[in-house]
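Quick one: structure tokens for this chain, please?
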Amino acid sequence: MAKILPPEQALEDALDILRSGEPVAIPTETVYGLAADATNGEAVARIFEVKGRPRFNPLIVHVADMEMAHRIAVFDEISLTLAQKFWPGPLTLVLPLREGHGVHGLVSAGLETVALRMPRGFASQLIQRLGRPLAAPSANSSGKISGTTAQAVNADLGGKIKLVVDGGPADVGVESTIAKVTPEGVRILRPGSVTAGDLEALTGLAVLRGGTKGIEAPGMMLSHYAPDARVRLDATELREGEALLAFGPSRIAGAGTALAMLNLSEHGSLREAAANLYSHLQALDRSGASVIAVEPLPQEGLGEAINDRLRRAAAPRGNESGSQQ
């Protein structure tokens, strides 16, 4: 298994591994990422190899500052406003690649755009010290539940990588919002904790959902973030032999017969629900249930991101077409 080190002890080891062309699992404010030098083709290929990720699925590029971001991508006025407001933080912007950007072609999967994010904390410090951007999708086997703790990452990928940096449980718990500014408005390609309301309030533009031409950014595959058990959404009653992913203080009919039950938030907090989503799915998946029934969750605000991940977890497996949500 991989070595697990706290951030204050991990920086030099992480830099050595990254410089050798290997990936490192690192904490971010959203979920844990599997990071490698975005300018090194062999290092990027190792990300795909470790995750078992299809190479038509692009990666997010993480930068340390706006100077690095401008070297990689061309910012329009609205995208720059969004970056100034939400960076560093859980917003990814899809932007045209700048000539001479230096990012390896595997990262963008042949697209003429790049998904850029500026993280906080250890990830930012690591990029600054490396002096190069990091490609960093979620640290999990492709299509499976994202890791929100170092222990979850190590259980999944620890046999394939050398180091997991343990920054504690991820603060947000779901992947970043991915947005793209278009002539029609701001298009959300993947919802996250920066909500449609946040984007509309800042820009005054219409907020649209989904892409227009298949996979335009990470996280758009229809089947994604999935446990081994089948996921049944918006359950109004529990069926025999099912585990239950609950939300709020009230239970659906038959909840007392659940093979196992965990509550995303007993008080109905969407922020708490997002932080618990992946760890609770992983725990219920280990219960032996073949089906995880999910109680209904609100659709507004952060609920949009939570329901997006649950729909992808419940989608038929092996579907590689882009989302048109």
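The chain is about 30% helix and 20% strand.
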